[in-house]
Every structure is written in structure tokens, then in C-alpha cells.
# Entry
Amino acid sequence: MTAARVVTSDTAGIELAINALKRGAAIGIPTETVYGLAADASNPSAVASIYAIKGRPSFNPLIAHVASIEMARGEGVMDERAEALATAFWPGPLTLVLPVAANGRTCELARAGLTTIAVRIPSHPVTQALLTLMQGPLAAPSANPSGKLSPTRAIEVATELGDAVELVLDGGPCASGIESSIVAILPDSAPTLLRPGAIARDQIESITGPLAQPAGTAITAPGQLQSHYAPRARLRLNAQHAEPDEVLLGFGPQAPIGADNLSVSGDLTEAAANLYQRLRQLDASGAQKIAVMRVPCEGLGEAINDRLQRAAAPRY
# Structure
């Protein structure tokens, strides 16, 4: 497999990206969370290529990325609760699951046939420019093979997806390093946290009040598969030390000196930004098993633990 072409995110690079998207191609794009695999959300053939490239099951919906709140209102029905969250956190790493708007442009395949749609406005300036010029929604899940570690650098997209994507826009390393938080705002239902992410629960609850937990096991948003975000190596969580056949991924000042560490100081924001990159590095070292030290389940730790639990889940 030949690596995809990585292009600079200047005016010429963005023009190349727009031309590719309008031809129905899939490309890699930077966001503040992780790199995305983007295609025209209104084009079913282009969206089908996303599922094919990732090997993603078609019952797993995609996020529609838009340039503005006005465009978001055209894709999903936003009540006053959704409007308050949008005002507080957009552009940024929050995805809202909303009832589908009557004249929305995102195709049914991108929504996995659901009557709801996942929408967000990314804050990365490169993708903001791309969406503004595109003048329509982009479907863009993380740019990795389904179930594997999400990429936080352009070269990771280029080498892992190869020439299945036409190009990858290089927007530098991702700032958050972990996917968006997903909140469902639906009629006659309490706001529900479907996926913890780069915005901590308490920040969201300062706007919504207490968030409900998802009811049932149906897939209603991205990132809800039990086994997901996984390296090749097997993970053992809440470890105090590594066994002889393991390598250690530490957290905080209590980790052994010299061990890979998500954050030596115990900073959860730094740990979230480093999570996938540290797991990639340990995977590339040839490690078969990774022991992960305990990360507190508070603030962004909730999202970190969610990703670690899914990465450690049984694989079928």
C-alpha cells in the first residue's frame, strides 16, 4: 500500500482538498480532536467510500461537520437546550445528536438510517476554512481503520489509510488528541451523554444540568462500539506495575522513572492529548501487552477511561 499524499494546508492545499471533495473523493483533514476521514455528506457514494476505507459497519453513524450554527440548524432541529450548548462550546469538540431537519443535506447513509443526526462545528482553522468554502456538511469520522487508534498527525493517516484517500491536509498535531464529547438533545428526553470526550462532563452540566446515561445498547452515535480505539497490543488497566511480559504506560509522578507516561505531572488535559500517541509508540515498539496505570475518572479522565476500556475490551 502506497502512503497517501500529504499536502500543506495553505490556500493551494485547501483548493486541492475542495476539488477532491467535490469529485466525491475521501480525504484526511485535521481537527482539534483527531484527524478525520472526510467526504461530502450529501453524496451517498462518497459517504459509502468512508465506510469502505475504514471497514466501518454501516449501522455506526457518522458526524456531520458544518461551518456555522446556521448550517447546523439546517441539518438538525435545535431546541433552546441545544442552542445554549452551541453558544457555549461551538466551534469546539462537542457533537450534538439532534432530530433530523426536514431539508437537511446529510444523506441517510451518513446517519445510518436513523431519524437523528450527529452535528458539530470544529474549531481547527484549516477545517473551518474548508467547510466555509465547501458550503455544505462533511461526514468525517476519525481517519483510522475501524476500531483502531485514532490518528493525531497527518502522517499517521497517510500511512495507515494509504492511497485509498486522495490526500491528507496537514494541520499539525491535534490539540485535544481525543474525540469530541457527544450529547443527545432530543424531544421529551433529558440531555444524555452518549460519549465522554474532550469537553468534561461538569463543563457540559454547567449548561444542561445533570446528564442522563444512554438507555439500552442500540448504537445511536459514533464511538459506542464496545471494542474501539484499540492498539494491536492487549491492554491491562488500573495496573500498579508491569508484569515481565508487559510494558508500562504510566500516569502521574508516581510512575517509574523512564516509563512512558501520559502526564508526569498528572495533568488530565495533557494525558488526553498524549493518549493515542503514547499507545501508538508502545505498539510500534513491538509490545504484545501494555499495562496502563490508573487514571482518575474525573474531568477529562472520564473520556480517557472510556477510550481505555474500549481499547481493552474483548475483540471478536
